[in-house]
Amino acid sequence: MDCAPEAFNTTIEKEQGRKQRQSKETTGLRKEIVFVLRHFLGKIIAVLVKHIIPLMLTITDNILLLLENEDGIFVADQNESINSVLAGAVLLDLSLSGQIDTDLNSLIVLDETPTGNVLMDHVLSEINAHSNSADTEHWIETLASSRSLPIQELALASLAQSGAVEQKDRNILWLFRSRTFQTTDLDSKEDIKVQIKDVVLSDNIPNPADAAIACLVDACGLLPEILSDSQIKQCQPRMKILRRLDLIGREVINRIASIERRQILKIRAQTARRQKANFVLSIVGCFFAVATLLSPRVPIPNQFGPTLLEYLWNDSLWQQWTGYLLLGFSLVGLLIVIVLKNRLLTRFGNYSTWQLTHILLGFVCVLTLFLHTGFRLGANLNTALMLFYLVVLIAGALAGILIGGSSELRKWGVPVTKKMRKAPVKTHIVFLLPLPALLVVHILLVYLY
Amino acid sequence: MSKNFILISSWFLATLIAIVIVGVWMTVGGSRQLLLVGQTTDAHHQIEVACETCHKAPIFSGPAVAVKAMNKACRTCHEDELAKSDDSHPRKKFRNPRMAQFWDKLDARLCTTCHTEHRPEITRESAVTVATNFCIACHSEGDQDVRLIRTSHADLSFDTCASSGCHNYHDNRVLYSDFLVKHAQTDWLTQKPVHELTRQARLTYKSEEERLMHHDAQAPSAALFNPAILRDWADSAHAINAINCTSCHAPAIANGSDSAGVETVWEDKPSQKICADCHKFEQNTFRKGRHGMRQHPKIANPRDIDGKLNSYGLAHITPSFIKEWFSDPAVPMYMTVAEARLPMRSEAADLSVGCGSCHDPHSVNVAYAAVDACLTCHDDMHSEAYRKSPHYTLWLAEVAGEASLGTGVSCATCHMAKVERRGNLVTDHNQNDILRPNEKMIRPVCLDCHGLKFALDSLADDELIKRNFRGRADVHVESIEWALLREREKQDD
Q1: What gap in Å lies between CA A286 and CA A398, rounded to an integer?
Q2: Are residue B305 and residue B357 in the same domain, yes or no?
Q3: A36: region left, alpha or beta (phi > 0 left; psi from -120 to 50 alpha)
Q4: Which residues in chain A are contacts of B38 at CB distance < 8 A?
Q5: B375 touching chain A per CB within 8 A
Q6: What DSSP element (H or E) covers B102?
Q7: Are residues B91 and B227 in the same domain?
Q8: Considering A130, A166, A274, B3, which has the largest number of Cβ atoms within 10 A of its Cβ?
């Protein structure tokens, strides 16, 4: 039976369309299978690689990993001490890789070939570009204070390059750009600690890199974080031997020790003082916040005429002043956390300073809240606002007590675990979430009705 | 998208939605009880869902406009009451520029200066929210200094002016000097202790010739088979005054506008409107008191959500549940006993207050309405003590026919006084009209039987009030002595 050419063409087109659809469906399925396989295979390969090929960490990487604090921040402060330690560490790395050599009076470049490590290559080119010969101390100071060569950032980039940490870039409130690093292998820090313990507590002859790391850790006062007090006392003779070993980095270590040890101790003492201040301030703040929740209101006097209490709790203008003041303090407190967490203004104060300021603001907020409310909890949505705000303040104060007073509490036989510290911080954040909506309603109610 | 981004976006969205919802409640419609910044006063809590009754200004008005509108709202409902009380501090007095010196101290041009809503902490008796010694604002300086112009007041402090039974800010109809002097020498009990208007009211029945009897009842045959109801009606004031069954159950038949059979237009339970057709004054006064204030004509209607949606062109696309959610709750017509703030009997919690709550519609037993109906619900000390009071003894004697008409004192005698209106004697159903300050009760009620001095002292003694006037007052108000002293001083001058 003959078919008309149009009908024949239509049949062909239909057949082609069917095949194309089939092909598309097959391609889509294949893509999904490939994606799933790649995803799982990728993970399996990553685990295998991790076990087969260990991380190749430099001395700088080791030191940086040890510097990571409880909040996952590697270098909390932009200070000379840490920079000097890092400068010394990178010179040691270069020295161990045979790129440079040091003697008492000079530091000379032996091999100009790039190592492939971003930090080491930068430092090498910096030294190479310097025409006059200078000693190790000069280079430590130069590298530590150089603005053109930000040693902390390069060290972190080097650490990321090694694969020990993962770099994460993000925008904060569409205004600030923030870069954070996250440890990919949580065991690496523990491994380093074990390695250092091994070096300082055993009588084996260490390799030069391990000895250098141990001495650098001692130089920047990190030993108490690795060893107990008794172990530190026990390892002192061994440390003396390690420092005296005629190893390649002795010069660097001695100089770092002489320049920085005093500063580091000073900073540690300062941090301890601030932690104590956090602790005390948090206890007082917590007491006032709980008192705000439980105390009966301070009555407005039944006396005609202007009195301070009348102004505070019965005068619209004063209420607005104290209210906006409270809002202002709270916003600054919040801004400090954003700054702190994202390391946006590290040049304007170190971590502990910002932390103390945050807690101080929390304390000021409790006092301003009293001026605004006089222990009144309000009604309906205002009560909700008040209760949420008080929980934020109380949880914040508890976090301050547990973080700032961890050493004090340990002395009193209350061990503060990481989980214990995180619980009030989480409560502090979760109860903060409804506050903006409640606050907007609170303000609208004042002005619209 | 990172986890943080999703979390922050979700939080931001939730916050925005919450603000928008509350914004819509505020500006378009929806219940706003969650937004109340403080408990509403006893005076207004029944109508608190109708915010626009007081907050009359548009939502984004400036404070001056809002305050002005709110004060206008106060006057809308309370102006008649103030006018009747011969207000001692009328607004017009303080609007005079010569009074400008006092505006900064206590702006008496505005009701809200002394009566601020939603401030339970500073709300005192009569919803006053300024300090008790507020008189000091104007009466402590210059020619207004009462300590100088009244020798009797020289050593007094200002915190007792309005609380000792001597003065009220608005209503001083029995507290001005001339009245005090005029009634200074009266005994505690008058020679003929009878409440005259009550006595007269009980005499104003029609003659036996005009009254209706059982066989006159016009009702469907099924209704006529209820002998108890028929008996109640035949003995009632309605039957005596020739009010037939159809007057309430089938008004169209009664007024002749419908010629169909009674069965077709018969209503088993007529609405309150039927009562109001004849008892207009009672209804008007009932709506001014706490019992019936939810029916007050000045209460704002719920906001028109449909109208607003129409104006935005959204009416046809808005789902009905959204409309329902964002619709203002209407003020219920009746208050239930459970909503009352005074102590009430728990078994009466579900009762509501309408005409039929106190007046059985067929027997229309005013004796029941005057005492038993009140005590069905009220459970405060004053109410509880009534049945042990001398007033109740007198009431029982009158009801039993052992004493003259008007000698008994029921709850209604004092709280729902008889008044003369256009030649008729009617009952004021605004039981709050002469309740606070309680000196308002003296002229229309107390003085019929008691002397002024006795009444002033009794009403100033809170404990005696709780005992429902069983015994004598332990408090003495010195107003009369001071008024007489001033009179003597004037004569000496």
Answers
A1: 7
A2: no
A3: alpha
A4: 378-379
A5: no
A6: helix B100-103
A7: no
A8: A274
pLDDT at A253: 65
Q: What is the pLDDT of residue A2?
A: 42
Domain stops at, among B333, B359, B391: B333
Inspect the interface and report whether the beta carbons of A302 and B137 lie closer than 8 Å. no
Residue B5 lies in a domain: yes
pLDDT at A8 over 70: no
Residues B244 and B359 in one domain: yes
Q: Which whole-number Å values give the CA distances from B412 to A443, B173, B372, B455, in the listed order?
A: 47, 22, 10, 18
Q: Which residue has 């059982």 as its token pair?
A: B214
Whether residue B3 lies within 8 A of chain A, CB to CB, comes out as no
Domain that holds residue B80: 1-103+299-333
Q: Are the beta carbons of A376 and B131 separated by less than 8 Å?
A: no
- Mean pLDDT score, A265-273: 79
Is B80 within a domain?
yes
- Kindly report the number of other CB atoms within 10 A of residue A363's CB atom: 22
Domain assignment present for residue B277? The answer is yes
Of A299, A381, A436, the CB nearest to B15: A436
Q: Which of B185, B128, B187 is nearest to B162 (CA)?
A: B128
Do residues B201 and B55 share a domain?
Answer: no
Contact of A449 with chain B, judged by CB distance below 8 Å, is answered with: yes
B57 has a chain A CB within 8 A of its CB: no
Q: Which pLDDT value is given to residue A3? A: 43
Q: Quick one: tokens of B237?
A: 């004031």
Q: Work out how many domains chain B is built from and give that number.
A: 2
Dihedral (CA of A128, A129, A132, A136) sign: negative
Chain B CB contacts of A444 below 8 Å: 22-23, 26
Whether A379 sits inside 8 A of B121 (CB atoms) is no
Q: How far is A359 from chain B (nearest CA, A)?
A: 24
- Are A304 and B136 a contacting pair at CB < 8 A? yes
Total residue count of chain B as it appears in this document: 493
Let me know whether B404 and B439 are in one domain: yes
Measured between beta carbons, which residues in chain A are less than 8 angstroms from residue B106? Answer: 304
Residue A41 has pLDDT above 60, yes or no: yes
Q: What is the DSSP letter of B378?
A: B
Residues B272 and B401 both lie in one domain: yes
Which of B313, B333, B353 is the C-terminal boundary of a domain?
B333
Q: Mutate which of B8, B19, B128, B139 to test chain A, going by most A C-beta atoms within 10 A?
A: B19
Residue A15: the pLDDT is 63
Rounded Cα distance between A442 and B404, Å, is 62
What pLDDT score was predicted for residue A250? 65
CB B4 within 8 A of CB B14: no
In a domain, B389, yes or no: yes
Q: What is the ipTM of this complex?
A: 0.89
A177-200 residue pLDDT tens: 666 677 776 677 788 888 888 888
The verdict on a CB contact (< 8 Å) between B36 and A170 is no
Q: Do B19 and A300 touch (CB under 8 A)?
A: no
Encoded amino acid at A273, one letter: R
- Check CB contact under 8 Å for B26 and A305: no
Instruction: Return contacts of A189-197, CB within 8 angstroms, 24+ apart.
Output: A189/A65, A189/A66, A189/A68, A192/A57, A192/A62, A192/A65, A192/A66, A193/A66, A193/A226, A196/A226, A197/A226, A197/A227, A197/A231
Residue B387 CB neighbours (<10 A): 14
Residues of chain B under the 70 pLDDT cut: 1, 204-208, 257-260
Tell me phi and psi for residue B170, to 5 degrees.
-100, -60
Q: Could you tell me if B279 and B378 lie in one domain? A: yes
Q: B435 and B399, same structural domain?
A: yes
Q: What is the pLDDT of residues A337-379, one digit of tens each?
A: 887 777 666 666 677 888 889 999 999 999 999 999 999 999 9
| Tens digit of each residue's pLDDT (9 = 90 or more) over A99-128 | 888 776 788 888 888 888 888 998 888 888
Position A249 pLDDT exceeds 60: no
